[in-house]
Amino acid sequence: MKPKIFTLLGNNTTLNTTGGDKINEIRFYTALSKHFEVYYNGQLFNPHARDYGIKDLPIQIPEDNYDLYYIRANNRILYNCPRPKVAMGIPYSSWLYHHVDAVITTTESWKQAILNYNDSAYYRELVGDWYGNSEKIIVPKKIINIRQTIDSNFMEKIDANSLMRNRISFGLKPTFGFFGSLAMQIFPNLAIKALQRMISNGYEINIIAAGKKYQNTVIPNKVNYLGYLPYESIPNYIQTCTCLIANEGVETEYLGSGKVLDAIAAGIPILSYRSAVREEQLGKDYLGFYNSEEEAYFIAKFILENHFFRNKIVEQLKLRYEMFSTESQGDYLCKQFSDLII
Predict the structure, then answer these.
(1) Where is the Glycosyl transferase family domain (predicted)?
(2) Adjacent-strand bridge partners of 144
(3) Which DSSP category does 275 fall into?
(4) 330, burial (CB in 10 Å: exposed 0-12, middle 13-18, buried 19+)
(5) What CATH number labels 152-321?
(6) Is the C or the N end of the chain the one with fewer CB within 10 Å?
(7) Residue 269 in contact with residue 56, Cβ under 8 Å?
């Protein structure tokens, strides 16, 4: 019989793929389901059912009949849960870090930032905004890096007719795509400038962006903004692209990225600014890393013109798939949580 885990995300009474936090939680629950019975707000989570089998019911304090309680961003419910209980590492409060049996992170870099925060000016500057720019924080009893999980739907190849229709809609040109939240602090400015320069130099390529656009975000010239796309349609767009583009910005030093895992699943090259977390996800030797606009320009050029280079990147992505697959993550998470379950 599988151990039972109670889960909850904030005040959400249902689960859907309308935002990054929900998508990441759904992928996490799916991996957990390999070795645990996962109950969201008291209802059995089924990754294959409509709405994941979750009905829109009022949030209730759970009964004492679960083996583990995982609550994210709801301290009222967390406080009233029996032990053992774990919580996501944000939003931070000294009470939460002291109260729970383990804090969850999604990358090793974030885990190290918590462990070393009190003794490192570098980490205080890096993640200080999350921790009220405090000089000291509570170090939790235990920190579990759950990593991130691939959605296997991104592996499924679209049919040839749909692929051709998509390519025709992009003018049959090689296409570079950025999918996800369009916020200035994570926008890939270096990569976009490199691609704009390629167009100015005569390369016939498309640059597309799609996702929620924040008010302060200005879409650069030569970037075709497709608006917000339903989550279910994104695999088709990704597979139409010649190359994807990852986030840039300071958050790449401690936060993971679903779009990187989507590229791994689909086997589509992704241009990525080199950072600690991207090395966790893609490997230190990944050939699609850049540190400057100039490097991004030449890597994009090689992906377009050098089949050996492109195929080598695809091979590298295939090797990373196993680490983040639902199956592998299920086994990994079972080991991480096993010592918390009596």
Answers:
(1) 173-289
(2) 104
(3) -
(4) middle
(5) 3.40.50.2000
(6) N
(7) no
Q: Is 82 exposed, middle or buried (0-12, 13-18, 19+ CB in 10 A)?
A: middle
- Walk along the chain (342 residues) and give the pLDDT tens digit of each residue: 899 999 999 999 999 998 889 999 999 999 999 999 999 999 999 999 999 999 999 999 998 899 999 999 999 999 999 999 999 999 999 999 999 999 999 999 999 999 999 999 999 999 999 999 999 999 999 999 999 999 999 998 888 888 888 888 887 899 999 999 999 999 999 999 999 999 999 999 999 999 999 888 899 999 999 999 999 999 999 999 999 999 999 999 999 999 999 999 999 999 999 999 999 999 999 999 999 999 999 999 999 999 999 999 999 999 999 999 999 999 999 999 999 986
For the domain made up of 4-149+327-340, the CATH class stated in words is alpha beta
Residue 37 structure tokens: 């019975």
User: Can you read off the two tokens belonging to residue 168?
Assistant: 């025709």
DSSP class of residue 291 equals S
Sketch the domain layout of the chain as residue ranges: 4-149+327-340, 152-321
> Which residues contact residue 118 at a Cβ distance below 8 angstroms, ignoring those fewer than 6 apart?
135, 136, 137, 139
Interatomic CA distance for residues 220 and 45, integer angstroms? 41
Q: How many whole angstroms separate alpha carbon 13 and alpha carbon 25?
A: 14
DSSP string over 139-156 = PPS-EEE------GGGGS
Rounded Cα–Cα distance for residues 218 and 229 (Å): 18
CA Rg, the chain, in Å?
21
Query: Tokens 């296997």 map to which residue?
Result: 152
**Helices (DSSP H) in the chain: which residue ranges?**
20-32, 75-80, 94-99, 108-116, 121-127, 160-169, 189-200, 234-240, 258-266, 276-282, 293-305, 307-324, 326-337
Place of tokens 């969850």: 104
121 CB-contact burial (10 Å; exposed 0-12 / middle 13-18 / buried 19+): exposed
- 213's enclosing H/E stretch is none
Q: CB of 188 within 8 A of CB of 246? A: yes
Per DSSP, 270 falls in state E
